[in-house]
Amino acid sequence: MDPKAVIIGSGIAGLASAIRLSKKGFHVTVFEKNAYAGGKLSETRIGNFRFDTGPSLFTLPDLMEELFILCGEDFSANLPLLRIDPVCKYFYPDGSIINSCSDVNTFAKHLEEETGTPCGDLNGYLNSCKELYDLTAPVFIFRPFADLKTLFRKESWKVLMNLKKLNIFRTLHDFNSSFFNDKRVVQLFDRYATYNGSDPYRAPATLSMISHLEHNLGAYYPEKGMYSIIESLVKLAERNGVKFCFNTKVTAIEYDKGHVRSIKVNDETVSADIIVSDIDMINTYNLLKGIDVPEKYIRDRSSSAMIYYWCMNRQFPELDMHNIFFSGNYREEFKYLFDLKKIYSDPTIYIFISSKKVITDAPEGCENWFVMINAPENAGQDWESIKESTRDLIIKKISGTLKKDISQNIIKESVTDPLQIEAGTSSKGGSLYGNSSNDRMAAFYRHPNYSKKIRGLYFTGGSVHPGGGIPLCLASAKIVDSLIKQNY
What we know:
The chain is of the alpha/beta class. The protein has helices at residues 12-22, 62-70, 75-78, 104-115, 119-141, 157-160, 172-179, 183-190, 209-217, 227-239, 281-285, 330-340, 383-402, 418-425, 470-487, and strands spanning 4-8, 27-31, 43-46, 49-52, 81-83, 88-91, 97-100, 220-222, 243-245, 250-256, 259-265, 268-271, 274-277, 304-312, 322-325, 349-352, 367-375, 410-416, 457-459. Helix 1 links the parallel strand 1 (4-8) and strand 2 (27-31).
C-alpha cells in the first residue's frame, strides 16, 4: 500500500509539495479550509472586474517549470508568461518619475537621465547583488538551514571564506546608500525589504539579492493573471492523483511516540505517514497538543497590508501595470509600522492594474485597481475606522500626484485589512511573511522545514525557511522534498 501524505493548506508551497510527493509514490490528500486553493495567491471578483489578491509578479520561473518537467509536461503550454517591462513606475513627492526598465542597460541610461546617476553605479550595484545571490543561494535558499551549524558544513566553506560579502552587519539602506547618491534611487532599492515585510533601515543588506532576481533575471506575469499559477498547479496535481478536500479545516495534528499518526478533520481521524503543513508555523503548533513553538522562533512579525480593490470607470494612460507612489519620509513610515503599529499619515501606495495586460480583467474603457499600503500586523487595532481614514489619505495622495480627483472614478470597491488576511489565510496577525527580517541574524531564526520533535512532520510556505514570496515558497517545497527523500 502506498504511504499516505497529508498536506495542510493549498498555498503555492503546499501545491508544489503535493505534486512532488505524488511523484514519489505517496497517496496525497490536500486539506484546505477555504473553498478554493491558493492561500494568499488568490483572486476576487466584483461584478465584471477581476483582481489578483496576492503577489502581482514573480521571479525564478524555472522553479515552477521544474514541477511540470517532473510530471513530463510542457510548462510554457500550461502557463504562458510575459516578461514585464517596465517592471514598475515610481512616483516621487517632488513630482519626478522613474521607470524601472527590465533591460538593465536601458534602466541605467534612464536613471542617468532622470537623476544624474552614472550608468556604472547601477551596473556595479546589480553585479554586487548577483554575486551575493550566487554565493548564498545554494546554502541559504535551496538547502535545509536549521541553525548556525549549517555554516560549518563542507558545502558552506565558500560562504565562510566570504563572510564579509554577506553584508549581514549592514542594513539594506546603508548598503544602497553606498552605491547611490540620489535619495530617490536609494528609496527605490530600499523598497525591496518590503518584499518580505521588513524595514530597510533594520533588515540586513543580504536582501539586496532580490534586486538581482527582478532586474538581472527578470520579472514575469502569466498571460491569464497570477491566479492562473494556482489553477495550473491544481490541475497538474489532480492529473497526478492528488486529492483535494476544500471547505475542510484541520483541527489537530496527532502524534504518538515521536511520530505523526493522523489529523483531525470534522471530528474524524485521517491517518498519515507524513504531514506537510503549509499554514503559518505558529498556527501549526496550535494544532499540536503538548508542544509549544520554540522560543527562538518567536520573532518580530512581518508587516501586513491594507488593500482596496477599486473598480474604475475610466482608464489612466499615465499609469502602468505596477506603480509606486512613495512616501516623503520613508524612515518614519517604517517606524510607524513596526514600533507604533500604526499606519503613517503619508504611506507609500502601490497600485497594480492587471487589466493593462489582461484586458478581460475589466470592462472596456475601465480598469481594475489593486491599491495596497503596508500595514502593521493585527494587534487589536480598530480596523474599521482605520480603513475609512486611510482611504481618504490614499485618494488625496493619488489625486494630488495625478492632478485629478480619482474619487469620482471609483464605482465599486472592496477592502481587505490585516484582520481579514489573518482569518482568510491562517497567517498569525495577518503578517504576510511570518517573521520579519528586521534583525541581522533573522535568517538563522526562521523555523526549519521539519520538526525536531515529531518525525514525519514538515513545514513549508512563507513563514518558515527560506521565507516568503513565490520563489522562496517553491524552494521550501523543494527542500521538504529532499528531506523526505532522505527519510523515506
